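Render Phospholipase/carboxylesterase in 3D.
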Amino acid sequence: MNYLPCVEIDPPHRDADASVIWLHGLGASGHDFEPIVPELRLPDSLAVRFVFPHAPQIPVTVNGGMVMPAWYDITALDLERKLDEGQLLNSAQRTVDLVEREMARGIDSTRILVAGFSQGGAVAWHAALTFAKPLAGLMALSTYFPTAHITVPSDANRDLPVHIFHGTGDQVVPEVLGQRAAQQLREWGYQPEYSNYAMGHEVCLQEVRDIAAFLSRCLDDRAD
């Protein structure tokens, strides 16, 4: 299997029994969210492995065709976002491959959470909701849900815990897109958590605290 290259951070004092697969945004890398791990201050009892994959280098139309790390090409930055759907779905499959690799390492699917920021979040939406086995949760940070029209949630993840995080001043991915994603989930019968912050297209300290709380709620039922 040709897995995406990843930055991996294992728990310091024991073998991992849970995993978080966290996708970065356009032009970034798996190192982008690496510094957030110690700031989460998760208890050692959670024993979480963080997996931060690197997106492939591809030309991005809205950036003049410049080659950069991207999960898919974006051809227009209007509110509806024109993008290469096939590339997004391929990135979602490669994310699923990483989930399955964690399972092969001995992590139960119910102990694996998928997260993504911006472009990475768009991929995470599809990968998590359609995964055939139950997951621990989904975090969607400063992102949107461009494949909602073709996404069919799996029966296994009909009750997936979802938390959406967004900045009220986000000029890159306007908050209305995060609100639309939340509304779509509600129409499907989900009960997503939604948090917004007085910030732009970024992450703030209160958000980090809320992410830590969500991770703890999703992963605190470890069976010894």
